[in-house]
Design goal:
single chain; alpha/beta; Rossmann fold; 2 domains; seven-stranded mixed β-sheet; 26% strand
Length: 362
Amino acid sequence: MTEQIPTHGVIFEGPGRRALVTELILDPPRRNEVRVRMAAAGICHSDLHVVDGDWERPTGVVLGHEGAAHVEAIGEGVEGLQVGDLVVLAWTAPCRSCPACRRDEPWLCSQPHGSGHRLREEDVRLRRPNGEPVGVYSGIGTFGTHQVVAASAAIKVDPRMPPEIAALIGCAVTTGIGAIRNTAGVKAGESVVVIGLGGVGLSAVMGAVAAGAHPITVVDTSPAKLELAIRAGAHQALLADEVDQARGADHVLECIGLVSTVELAVDLVRPGGTITLVGMTPQGQRASFDVYRLVEEGKQIRGSNYGSAVPARDFPMIATEYLAGKLPLDLLVTERIGLEGLDAAFDAMRRRDGVRRVVEFR
């Protein structure tokens, strides 16, 4: 059995606390688990929600939920993975037995492997040098140099994938493209409006382009992000004060997570059209709309969690499309940083500066 190894990670100690790189000790993988060495990790707005206290999460866990890694050690019972494989980590590793999994909706799994941020005594694999247990955010904790994860959370992809691009498939890319393909079910020739052009929104644009949607209209407050969306294949770019030009689309996707833009999406879609809510607001926030009008006009509202994706199916497929030149995912990477640059990256995100910062592990 593999021995304990020294590692490092950024632990969430509470809202407003600095992101400090901490020395840790990692236990070996157990049955149906693998140990991975992180290659790259994306910094997602969901991480910022945790750091800023918008979402209530336990302290004492290594942050990060979007990453790519190489398999270093394999526990008993693991099939389909070998040491050296490049894997994209899924923050929901379905149990395959709960009601949602039996309905073939693994993104809604109620008991995913590694759930509870690996804080239960039987799930702890990570400790401080003094033996104090440390949790792992969403079961994968990608802001650590090494992790033990459920084998079902480690999805093998083509080894030719650049790790910094593969990392983004773990959340933003799959969430955006999946919202188009799986949740909204956009068809060729249908019109699409995407509100908000972070990593998820730009990925949704790419998914809409790949689906043959037309026209694709994007809305944001940043001219730089609107330019990126045009490079990704959008047909019309609108600043927020021009949004009236976007009315009447078959599909409107809200990819920011603001109450105001959720309500705007309901207003913009055509009668009979579909609103897909992808962005995540702070917990407890509520939106309002004219119920009579919604019903009379036959509009549909759908929530899209993780792009309604099946990681074992969707991750390799997206990687293949990227390598074939069908998805310009390189547009998403604004800057490559080290773990010590997390605080500056969070500040940039608060300013809505850029799309995705990616931690590269050396």
